[in-house]
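note to self — DONT lose this again. spent like an hour looking for the file last time. sequence + predicted structure for the chain T wanted, 235 res
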Amino acid sequence: MSEKSLREFVKQDSIKNIQKNILKIDANYKRLIQFCSGSQNIERTNKNVALTNIAKGTHRSLSLLAKNLSDDYDITLVALCTRNLFELNIRLRSIIKHENSLNTWMSEMVMDENQILDAISTIANDNHAAELELFENKKKLNNSILDKHNLKSVKSPETVKNIAKDAGDLEEYTALFKLFSKLLHPSSYLINSYNSAGCIDNFNILIVSAQKYAFDLFERLRSELNVPEGVLKEW
């Protein structure tokens, strides 16, 4: 890691050039994902599959951010992508740090889908017996996945705050997560003071943070997945 502060790397630039830089970052994610998708390139372990999926999730957020950047930017969309990258970053760091974190996260996948099926079931009536049976069969299949991979079921997801604390990034969470939330949800601040919420200062905080998280994610993923330097292009 460089000993320079983030401030020393940051420079003011046009929206167009910021967009180009994000597309440049995303291009290396595409190369990394393509390499990891090759069955002969990496061992197919639970961890490697999870890390490759994190790379894919990061790519989707970067692509969404880049495609929608303009001088008339939508601050809510920028906040959404930045928060996604923050959560992916701390999740990755937690997984690298603790094997149990990986197991919990993979178990949450089953919990999430089962909870969705249960929620949809609450609006069913007598005419939906076939659909309800499909839901129950799907839940049984999901639970069998836990058994197959020796994973324990979980009843609730880890909070972002706890993941940030585990990753050693509680200070960043405290500083920025409230901003993410106020810009993402139809808060009074966002709705009644949109010009203030969408100001260039908030945009700059988000866009710098998004790039920082993306770079950090990439280097950790590349290292953990043993992706050769030759696969990638220089920044």
